[in-house]
Amino acid sequence: MADAFDVVILGSGPGGYVAAIRAGQLGLKTAMVERDKRLGGTCLLRGCIPTKSLLWTAELLTHINAAAEFGIDLKNPAVNWGQAQKHKEKVVAKGVAGIEFLMKKNKVTVLKGHGRISAKGKVEVAGEGGKQTYDAKNIIIATGSVPKSLPMVPVDHKRVLNSDSILELQKIPASLIVLGAGAVGCEFASIFNHVGSETTIVEEDQLRSRRGRGEGRDDPQRGQGDRQGGQRGQDARGGDGPLGDRTISSHPGDRA
Ligand SMILES: Cc1cc2nc3c(=O)[nH]c(=O)nc-3n(C[C@H](O)[C@H](O)[C@H](O)COP(=O)(O)OP(=O)(O)OC[C@H]3O[C@@H](n4cnc5c(N)ncnc54)[C@H](O)[C@@H]3O)c2cc1C
Fold this sequence. Notes:
The relative contact order is 0.13. This protein has helices at residues 14-25, 41-46, 48-66, 81-105, 183-194, 206-212, 220-232; strands spanning 4-10, 30-34, 108-112, 114-119, 122-127, 130-141, 175-179, 198-203, 246-249. It is of the alpha/beta class. It binds flavin-adenine dinucleotide (FAD). Flavin-adenine dinucleotide is lined by residues 10-16, 33-36, 41-43, 46-48, 51, 114-115, 142-145, 163, 184.
């Protein structure tokens, strides 16, 4: 007979593990189900955390490249992308270990496998050891989201990447087109532009791309700075505005 829990949480991303910690703190018998090998969800494994690590590599390089201006001579800095990836993995692994520790500390049972609500108050977990069904007085669904593929540019993880596979790139691409100037698109564009990829963002929302160039903002000083960044960014490798260098706006009906 499988265990019965006060609360079973599906998913170990920030939605899931924070709920699990709180439930544990409140003295509830808690289980968290995760189908990935590692805990942490998109944020820790494929989102916020790994991108910030790579972003810091890019930012550091930008500072180093500007160092001579401030009286520090650093000759020929080069990006060791393999090492940047290793460092990213180290940061992620530390975060995963932190979540595992917090689960133990708060007496949360971690169930590895694909979770499914099989009936009212029942959660079935299909793991390596087969299927097991658990009773759950309460169920929290925190299963997050996965990247969407576009019908006209299917993701093959080789030439057409999504936000998961771009994080695994083993070398810096010579050029890169980023579809979408949202937070995630701008973040990747910024990383790769700064480490040397000729980067172009394609954005259908004209307002977003104008704002990226510093227009349409309330703060005139900030706008000015961004505008300068946009102008400098005519050189694809030198741009340091928030959108890096180039933004192309397209609109529904525009020809590709
Ligand atoms: C590239 C990128 C950068 C980002 N940067 C930031 C940032 O800087 N700041 C920020 O606030 N947000 C950022 N985000 C968004 C952030 O990652 C998400 O908002 C956050 O991860 C959502 O948390 P969640 O717990 O809802 O889902 P997720 O983190 O997606 O976690 C869901 C978990 O549920 C598991 N799961 C799904 N279905 C099942 C099932 N049936 N059984 C068992 N397990 C299951 C999944 O494997 C996953 O581990 C970024 C996202 C991306 C892609």
